[in-house]
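agent> Task received from the user: take the single chain below, predict its 3D structure, and emit structure tokens. No templates, no multimer pairing.
agent> Plan: (1) validate residues, (2) run structure prediction, (3) serialize to tokens, (4) report one or two observations.
agent> Step 1 OK, no nonstandard residues flagged.
tool_call: predict_structure(input=
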Amino acid sequence: MKTILSTLVLFIILSSSAIAQKNEEIKVWGNCGMCKKVIETAATGAGASKANWSEDTKMLTVSYNAKKIDAKKIQEAVASAGYDTQDFTAPTEVYNKLHGCCQYERKQSASVTTQEAKMDCCKDGKCENGKDCKDCKEGKCKKEMACGNCKDGKCEDGKACKDCKNCSKD
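)
tool_result: status=success, residues=170
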């Protein structure tokens, strides 16, 4: 009876920890075996119990205890190591330090560049004029657009927007 009870308790403990284990696939950009080692090490360092990255599919398969960690934290750790994930972009300065063979074609580099370009007047989330970056238009703060706004292709001063040196559409 004691053995059966011990076995039952052990089964319950193992079952509850298995329920907390979550398996997930995460897209991670990279190229080679060195990338694989860094990506998997970053994932396990963040709390994944298992991590396996495929050079061919660019998918990182992780197992982790959902009560202790989540996929977001794992992705943040991988991005901090220099590798873009499906939801996080690695810091450019970290990516630039990767070995040459590990420098992959960046994910959505065009959209990131476009977003950064739209906000190039912004510093610390604020336009140079102190307003939120949402007040930026096409990379310029509204204060820089002396013509104010364009209507039907004409600035307030009557010039075509493309001819207005202060208009954001020039």
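agent> Step 4: summary for the user.
The longest helix spans residues 2-20.
agent> Done.
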